């Protein structure tokens, strides 16, 4: 990172961190002292702080308590805490390859292991991805049945982030799981954001998780933890996964800060997620109305009605220009509507996308507040284009 990049990032964090109106907290948008103070306050409600810190995730400590609570929430026999979701999923898919005798994993080309993990699935785990569809949605039952080669595991990312945090219907999900079973494959859910998916399905979390043989969940995304993830499923599989976790170097000496933050997230954020999902529909609808009433030649709010509390917004401008407009809006008005924009791989020049999250701060925004913020943002965009920073 160059000095210019550091200065730019510092300016962005200062602008977003000093804002008074925002739709969701910025990831990593707190100063160290602020985060420690919040962890101490929320952690005291989630776990006995007079207890001892853990060592290597011992079962009778805070990590063990997090694993038990996670398994109970998902309705599985057991769960194992991992420092990262990348590690948890590689281990899960490796375990299933050994048990099924087939190292082929059917997964979407937009799924996390194929987009964000530097080919670790192939290089470290020795597994081979097969792609049941290239459509920007999860595969259908017909596509799974039509795969022209056997596979040991079907991995479904719920929701599929790169396609706009999209989910199938409940009937579609159960059908695709059934199709995998017909192919004598096991099913693994990439549930990094499974917590907020239950509103769309209209089913309890345990009912959704029960469709899969194993489930990975994240603690730092929607639950606001520091880091970490869990792999949940049958006790024998989780025991094997714990052995691989050790081999992968995933058992640090002390993990209690991450575990404490995760427990606080289960207490504080998990019960609020359905409300966030419902209000995201209001925000997305207001964004659509605001863009429709502007002079923009093209835009996209996707999905039109969000499946979770996150969705995409696309605009016909360069990403740096839009990010600069958002920073200026935060600096001059204290309002954060959008943060970083990017041009995803394959998108044409002159287009950019940002991900919108609606969380607790966004619940106070009315549709009119959103429309006003859009008009303001577009004004800053014009100014940024005329005199770039």
Separation of termini?
Answer: 19 Å
The CATH topology of the largest domain: Aspartate Aminotransferase, domain 2
Strand-residue proportion: 5-15%
Low-confidence stretches: none
What does this 3D model show about the protein?
- InterPro entries: ArAA_b-elim_lyase/Thr_aldolase (IPR001597), PyrdxlP-dep_Trfase (IPR015424), PyrdxlP-dep_Trfase_major (IPR015421), PyrdxlP-dep_Trfase_small (IPR015422).
- It comes from Streptomyces daqingensis.
- The protein is of the alpha/beta class and 389 residues long.
- The chain has two domains: 3-30 and 272-386, Aspartate Aminotransferase, domain 1 (Alpha-Beta Complex), CATH 3.90.1150; 35-268, Type I PLP-dependent aspartate aminotransferase-like (Major domain) (Aspartate Aminotransferase, domain 2).
- The protein is 45% helix and 13% strand.
- The chain is built from 15 helices and twelve strands.
- The chain has helices at residues 3-17, 32-46, 62-74, 85-100, 112-115, 120-123, 141-146, 170-182, 198-201, 205-209, 235-247, 256-268, 273-292, 319-333, 367-386; strands spanning 21-22, 78-82, 104-106, 128-130, 153-157, 186-191, 214-218, 229-233, 300-302, 310-315, 335-336, 352-357.
- The strands form three sheets. The protein has a seven-stranded mixed beta sheet, sandwiched between helices.
- The two termini are 19 Å apart.
């Amino acid at each position: 990172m160059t000095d210019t990049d550091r200065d730019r990032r510092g300016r962005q964090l200062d602008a977003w961190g000093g804002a008074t109106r925002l739709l969701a907290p910025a990831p990593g948008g707190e100063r160290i002292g602020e985060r420690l103070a919040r962890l101490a306050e929320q952690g005291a409600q989630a776990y006995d702080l007079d207890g001892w810190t853990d060592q290597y995730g011992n079962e009778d400590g805070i990590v063990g308590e997090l694993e038990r609570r996670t398994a109970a929430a998902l309705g599985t026999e057991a769960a194992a805490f991992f420092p990262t979701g990348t590690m948890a999923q590689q281990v899960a898919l490796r375990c299933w390859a050994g048990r099924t005798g087939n190292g082929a994993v059917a997964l979407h080309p937009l799924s996390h292991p194929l987009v964000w993990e530097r080919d670790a699935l192939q290089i470290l785990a020795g597994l081979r991805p097969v792609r049941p569809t290239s459509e920007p949605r999860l595969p259908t039952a017909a596509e799974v049945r039509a795969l022209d080669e056997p596979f040991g595991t079907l991995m479904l990312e719920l929701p599929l982030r790169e396609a706009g945090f999209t989910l199938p219907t409940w009937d579609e999900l159960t059908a695709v799981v059934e199709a995998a079973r017909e192919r004598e494959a096991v099913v693994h859910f990439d549930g990094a954001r499974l917590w907020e998916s239950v509103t769309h399905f209209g089913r309890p979390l345990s009912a959704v998780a029960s469709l899969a043989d194993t489930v990975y969940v994240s603690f730092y995304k929607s639950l606001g933890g520091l880091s970490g993830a869990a792999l949940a499923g049958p006790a024998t599989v989780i025991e094997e996964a714990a052995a691989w976790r050790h081999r992968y170097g995933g058992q640090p000496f002390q993990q209690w800060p991450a575990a404490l933050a995760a427990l606080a997230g289960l207490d504080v954020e998990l019960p609020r997620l359905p409300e966030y999902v419902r209000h995201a529909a209001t925000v997305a609808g207001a964004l659509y109305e605001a863009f429709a009433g502007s002079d923009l030649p093209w835009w996209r709010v996707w999905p039109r009605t969000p499946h979770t509390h996150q969705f995409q917004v696309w605009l016909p401008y360069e990403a740096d220009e839009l990010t600069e407009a958002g920073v200026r809006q935060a600096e001059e008005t204290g309002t954060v509507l959008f943060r970083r924009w990017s041009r995803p791989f394959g998108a044409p020049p002159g287009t950019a996308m940002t991900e919108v999250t609606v969380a607790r701060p966004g619940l106070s925004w009315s549709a009119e507040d959103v429309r006003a913020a859009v008009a303001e943002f577009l004004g800053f965009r014009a100014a940024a284009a005329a005199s770039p920073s």
